[in-house]
Amino acid sequence: MQSENRFFDDFAKFVNGAAGTLAGVGREAEQSARARAKEWIGGLEFVSREEFEAVKAMAAAARDEADGLRARLDKLEATASKPSAAPTSAKAKAVKKSADV
């Protein structure tokens, strides 16, 4: 036996309507928050992925070039620091002669 009670039926409709309204308010608040976040982030100066990758490649190339130059400098310093067997310039001969005296 099912009794029809209008009070409970109206109350169920009211609660169902309130739940739908709250869900709509929640969706609207979420959309508003997303719009504000996009606006705020858009004001910041973020770089795109393409720009980031280009700068990353430039930095890697500069690092490789610096490593090459460092190796070249080390080689030149090693060559310059080796004592030569016979001085070739007149100044070097004079310096060697004065050191022998």
Walk me through this protein's architecture.
Helix content is 81%, strand content 0%. With 101 residues, it is an all-alpha fold. The chain has 2 domains: 1-46; 47-81. The longest helix has 38 residues, at 6-43.
Structural class: mainly alpha
Distance between the termini: 132 Å
Order of helices and strands: HHH
Helix fraction, binned, reads: over 70%
What is the domain total for the residues?
A: 2
Keywords:
mainly alpha, 3 helices, 101 residues, rod-shaped
TL;DR?
The chain is mainly α and 101 residues long. It is built from three helices and no strands.
List the helices and strands and how they pair.
Elements: H1 6-43, H2 49-81, H3 90-100
